[in-house]
Amino acid sequence: MKCVSVVGIGPGNELYLSIAAKETLEESDLIVGYKKYVELVEEYLPEKEYLYTGMTKEVDRCKMALEKAAEGNAVSVVCSGDAGVYGMAGLVYELSVDYPDVEIDIVPGISAVLSGSAVLGAPIGHDFAVISLSDLLTPWELIEKRLALAGEGDFCICLYNPSSHKRKDYLKKACEILLEFKGEDTICGYVRNIGRDGEEYHITNLLELKDTEVDMFTTVFIGNANTKVIDDKMVTICNIMKDVHKIEEIRKEVAMNCSKLGSGDTDLQFTWQRNINMFTL
């Protein structure tokens, strides 16, 4: 079958691989990807045929996959995390216009914003933004604008690609921008090697994060005004409990007023009782 499946493999550990992703990889004649991700898949599917390229060779490996599929092979392109979140799904579709006979299938995976969040606790329990600090494909000026707007909106923020050999100070620059909108004590966290050997996480604040050294295998989380630390976990409160307490106060007030009514005030009693029922949790 002439098909390219773009498969999100999650953090890399087979335990986080979806059933659909596992079945797609098992049914593939060829698996293509960045060398590091291919090696992760090779650990649990050693019998498969693999082709890989290095960093910045995304176009080459997607073309390679499409060419092999056009020859009649079932090919999988593997991506860490999810195929559509900074993955190869968009690029494969873009290049596929030159291969009209090749079918494209996207198989989702667990992105680092989700798997990293689970390690830290619940850091994205409310509206959040995901921003990559890599300026290989996006001008730094645009990244700065996105950071500023996310900070101004008090979004929880997840940062991908926070640092590299050539971008050692990018996380510091990002934190300096966010400190214009968020407090120094804003709860932050970061996870390294999510779902792999050597996994570790740390919780800190925005001021301390500014001077923290991280690498390309680290995912960073920055909280909002309602983020706190609970049992050494980063938790963003979504105000549900505040609403619960408010509703309970209203129910008590309505019940008290209802009890003060005389036996002849049947219509008013009915109205109060209906109001009580409206606030039943």
Q: Overall mean pLDDT score? A: 90
The residue ranges in which pLDDT falls below 50 over 5 or more consecutive positions are: none
What Rg do the Cα atoms give? 25 Å
Strand order of the largest sheet: 3-2-4-1-5
Q: Structural class of the helices, strands and pairings?
A: alpha/beta
Indicate the percent of residues in helices.
Answer: 25-40%
**Range of strand content:** 15-25%
Give an overview in words.
This protein has 281 residues and is of the alpha/beta class. 37% of the residues lie in helices and 22% in strands. The protein has ten helices and 13 strands. The chain has a five-stranded parallel sheet with strand order 3-2-4-1-5, with helices on both faces. Helix 9 runs antiparallel to helix 10. The model has no long low-confidence stretch (mean pLDDT 90).
Topology, element by element:
Layout: E1 3-8, H1 19-26, E2 30-34, H2 35-42, E3 50-53, H3 58-70, E4 74-79, H4 89-95, E5 103-107, H5 112-120, E6 121-122, E7 128-132, H6 140-152, E8 156-160, H7 170-178, E9 187-192, E10 200-205, H8 206-209, E11 218-222, E12 227-230, E13 233-236, H9 240-260, H10 266-278
Parallel strand pairs: 1-4, 1-5, 2-3, 2-4, 6-13, 7-8
Antiparallel strand pairs: 8-11, 9-10, 9-11, 12-13
Helix pairs in contact: 9-10
